Amino acid sequence: MRWVGRIGFGLIVLAIAAFVALASWEPFFAQRSAEPPRQAYKAEIVRDHYGVPHIYGKTDADVAYGIAVAHAEDDFFTLQDTAAMTRGRYGAIAGPDGAAIDYLYHLLDARGTADRHYDNLPQDTQAIFNAYASGLNDYARDHPEEIKLANLFPVNGKDIAAGFALRQPLFYGLGNIILDLVEGNELRPEFGPPIPQADAKEARTDWPLPWGEMAALSGSNAFAIAPERSGDGVTRLVSNTHQPLRGGIAWYELVVESEQGWHFAGASLVGTPYPVMGHNRTLGFTWTVNRPDLIDIYELEVAVSPGIDGDEYRYLLDGEWRELERWTARLPVKLGPLVLPIEREFFRSAHGPVIRNDKGWFAIRYAGIDSIAYADAFYRLGKAENFEQWQAVMARMEIPSFNSVYADREGNIAYIYNAAFPNRKKGANWRTVLPGDDSSLIWQGTADFSEVPKQVNPASGWLFNANNAPWSAAGEADDLRAEDFAPELGVENKTTNRAWRAAKLLGETPVIDRQDLERIKYDKTYERRGYIADMLDDVAALDLSDDPGLGRAQALLAEWDLTSDNVGRADALAYLLLRDFMSAEYQNKPLPDVREKLAAATAHLETHFGRLDPPLSDLLRLRQGDVDLPLIGGSDTLRASTIWRVDDDGRLQLVHGDSFLMFVEWPPGERVFSESVQPFGAATTRPESPHYTDQMELYVNQQLKPVHFWRENVLANAARRYTVESN
Q1: How many helices (H) and strands (E) does the chain have?
Q2: Average pLDDT, stretch 343-356?
Q3: 153: number of Cβ within 10 Å
Q4: How many structural domains are present in the chain?
Q5: Cβ 86 vs Cβ 340: under 8 Å
Q6: Is the residue at 267 inside a domain?
Q7: What is the pLDDT of residue 24?
Q8: pLDDT-based confidence at residue 490 (cuts at 50, 70, 90)
Q9: Which CATH number characterizes residue 599's domain?
Q10: Of 294, 293, 295, 297, nearest in space to 435 by CA
Q11: How many Å apart are CA 149 and CA 387, to the nearest integer?
Q12: Which of 40, 48, 173, 570 is the most exposed place for a label (fewest CB within 10 A)?
């Protein structure tokens, strides 16, 4: 029987070998990036009392190197996630959710896009990408104990560019469309992409969220006030994006200055080698998400036939059968201590990426496809010195989406409903699934900038956007008309409750000074319109004679004062109800069952508070580490507390809403001045840092801190000053 024991021992050895292989194969098989060209970089980093880095260098590339090091000092944890995404390796860190993003990486050919176009970027843009990558590499080399995935570094400029190619299309809803196609869901007759919204009970504090929730700005406000309307001759700009408060699309505040004329204060995203919103000496700009139809779906006729090396795939185009591009990629999926290699097949046609499901074969074409030109455009906007230069960059039509609101020291204000609008053939119904056999429907390039909705220096003296259609931006007398713009642009026609409220408040305020602008920005009132009115009417219409408990909730909601200001007795109940109704509106889905949602909100309050009318600030909390603060604001109010996670004690921890907030001012004849605040602090993943929670009280109290833009102010408020140099 010795042979039985030997077999058993052999099986154990094989099992151990298999375990070791599955636990360790991924780093060895992962494709490694070449080190960027070696350069000597040197940057000075001055941190103020809130830990915000002010980064100085002789060249822009020196500054980009310093940006990478400073950001890694504060959040190397999240930077590694982004680095893994740029190589299709995020599943080895985050498991199935990460593998879903790796699937998108291969489907969208993010790496191929970077490889094809990186060398076409201007040399100075390539230089800052390579310098930024070098900064990440040097930090990783100096801190090996922090690395969470072997062979992730070095990275290079193309890796950074691949990250742009992966993330940018997801800001306008491409992930949702892909998810529908992958799962074989019925496509809506008019499938214009909604703003993705995380389900309130499943909202996560890490990033990126899977699929369409990844990189989704599901709200934002922006305001610009001209000097003739401000009462004191000051031009003002307010940047108020609504993003996840933590993770890869949480804002990172910084100030940069080089001897090549780059001087900018604002915020960047993880994996971005420059700030993408804020202000320089002469001008400022910010972004809000818009929802134009930038995605076209084509149904292909595909023939599959056996070939020498396996099945061959062809699709019909203009009466001819063409070969369907096809490749296989291995997705790493971490499950416990193991990383499983999961192979997936990918296809591409002349239209773009192709997805096969039970209903057939579908190709996708989207704004910014096969381009990384916007990686240069964002950089150029920050270096523009006046409105003409800034608008010239916008006119390149390279930034795939986002509204932009602008102001400058000359008193100009502007709003652009920006997108890389496809140059579509007139007459086709672009809101439906298109026939894939007609090449005339495969658009090339973009529409002309002259066709884009925009407002410059309206007579009203104010401009705003709150994720609404461009037909409301400057007041009724100045607003654009939908009928004046081509339907092929696919401009949205929806609005938000915040937009109705902003237009009302701005329009009825004769002089919009700083105090009034703050009052408007922090407003917590809803307009009784749209889904708000529908929800209240539906609750009032319920027959609850069979459930006295729900009847009490119904009566309480009937007295709601339409605010989220912590004063009314019904604020908490309304806040719990509203999220799902807002989400349905934003996603073009039917409103939820109102009795079911009322019952769930009632049960939550009674279970965790023993009452239906706790103060909203008892329910809604801002939490980080050991700090737990009361919070107010609404899911669709100008003071935005949008998405929350239910904690074990029944409190709602805010994970998405007002994020980085900046007020910028140009007083007549004076230098630019700005103030800002973040929800937590500069070091968002360093609990041991004093800057992990040091802005929380400012945030909940609706207060701002000064931005030290000018060097003498930076040095006067310096808490730490040091130099970083390339290894």
Answers
A1: 20, 28
A2: 97
A3: 21
A4: 1
A5: no
A6: no
A7: 59
A8: very high
A9: 1.10.1400.10
A10: 297
A11: 44
A12: 40
Question: Read out DSSP for 19-38?
Answer: HHHHHHHHHHHSPPPPPPPP
> Tokens 């818009």 belong to which residue?
290
Q: Could you read off the pLDDT of 511-520 as tens digits, one per residue?
A: 999 999 999 9
pLDDT at residue 472 greater than cutoff 70? yes
Residues facing 663 on adjacent strands: 238, 675
Q: How far apart are CA 156 and CA 83, in angstroms?
A: 10
Omega prior to 487 cis, within 30 of 0: no
Please tell me the distance from the alpha carbon of residue 239 to that of residue 405, in angstroms, as a whole number: 9
User: Closest by alpha carbon to 106, among 15, 41, 31?
Assistant: 31
Express each pLDDT in 114-150 by its tens digit: 999 999 999 999 999 999 999 999 999 999 999 999 9
Domain for residue 585, yes or no?
yes
Per-residue tokens: 165:
């190619």
Q: Which of 316, 326, 362, 433 is nearest to 109 (CA)?
A: 326
CA 103 to chain centre: 19
Please give the span between the terminal C-alpha atoms of the chain, in angstroms, as a whole number.
62
Which residue, among 578, 564, 657, 588, has the nearest Cα to 218 in the 3D structure? 657
Q: Is 402 inside a domain boundary?
A: no
Amino acid in position 14: L
Structural contact between residues 161 and 372, judged by C-beta atoms closer than 8 angstroms = yes
Which residue's structure tokens are 């009490």? 552
Rounded Cα–Cα distance for residues 508 and 533 (Å): 22
Which of left, alpha, beta for 60 (phi over 0: left; psi -120 to 50: alpha)? alpha
Paired tokens of 496? 């938000």
Domain coverage including residue 619: 530-638
Q: Which residues have CB under 8 Å from 452's CB, separation 6+?
A: 397, 416, 417, 418, 419, 421, 489
58, burial (CB in 10 Å: exposed 0-12, middle 13-18, buried 19+):
middle
**Rounded distance between C-alpha atoms, residue 140 and residue 77, angstroms:** 11
- Residue 172 is given by DSSP the state G
Alpha carbons 687 and 674: distance in angstroms, whole number = 28
- In this predicted model, what pLDDT tens digit does every residue of 604-661 receive, in sequence order? 999 999 999 999 999 999 999 999 999 999 999 999 999 999 999 999 999 999 999 9
Show the tokens assigned to 171: 């800001």
- Model confidence band, residue 3 (pLDDT cutoffs 50, 70, 90): low
Token pair, residue 456, equals 């410059």
- Structure tokens that stand for 3 in this block: 């042979």
Q: DSSP class of residue 367?
A: T
The answer on pLDDT for 29 being more than 80 is no
Sheet holding 360-366, edge to edge: 325-335, 338-348, 353-357, 360-366, 295-300, 434-435
For helices 60-85 and 157-167, angle between their N-to-C axes, nearest 10 degrees: 60
Decide if 615 is inside a domain. yes
Model-wide pTM > 0.85: yes
